[in-house]
Amino acid sequence: MPEHLPSSPAADRNKEPILAVLRRILGGHGAALEIASGTGQHAAWFAAALPGWRWQPTEADAALLPVIEARVAKAGLANVLPPVHLDVMAPQWPSPDAPFAQRFDAIFCANLLHISPWASCTALMRGAARYLAQDGTLVTYGPYFEDEVPPAPSNLGFDQDLRARNRSWGIRRLEDVVAEARRAGLDLRQRHAMPANNLLLEFGIAD
Prior knowledge:
Layout: H1 9-25, E1 30-35, H2 41-49, E2 53-59, H3 65-75, E3 84-85, E4 104-110, H4 119-131, E5 132-142, E6 144-145, H5 153-165, E7 172-173, H6 174-184, E8 186-194, E9 198-205
Parallel strand pairs: 1-2, 1-4, 2-3, 4-5, 6-7
Antiparallel strand pairs: 5-9, 8-9
Helix pairs in contact: 1-2, 2-3, 4-6
């Protein structure tokens, strides 16, 4: 186990506000799939606070899998499954050779869409439509631009920084994300305003 586990300051700041919403929108128990778990801070925090939920962390960066595993072990959590390598762009999750055999009551994805190419949004929505239970919920978290809402100066600056680092990155238009979800068979059910000019979005299987 690494002595010093990498951590994300942003995850530490937003884990409690996100949890407050998850407590309201999720039932008392279920199976959750996390896309892009990063350092595992969200997985450990949410699983500890929601003991009726079984949490499956995943991460595209294989180097972070032992970090997630170590953080979960340190927390002594029995309701977190071993992290698995998953690229959101894969045609089957976590891999074509060994796809998930179950559907999930919740799929959670934080801070992915703006630090990946637009194709990852398409892949996330299509994958969620494949692996969500009929009454399940896809939860995304992060910054978005909205047509009817003046953009926060901090988000404008963040977007410029992202695009300078990678031309395919950037804060996404909420309307574009919702349209991509609809093409995959998902509807936006709820929009939650969050601290630091972020949004938490709930999507469900279209009726």
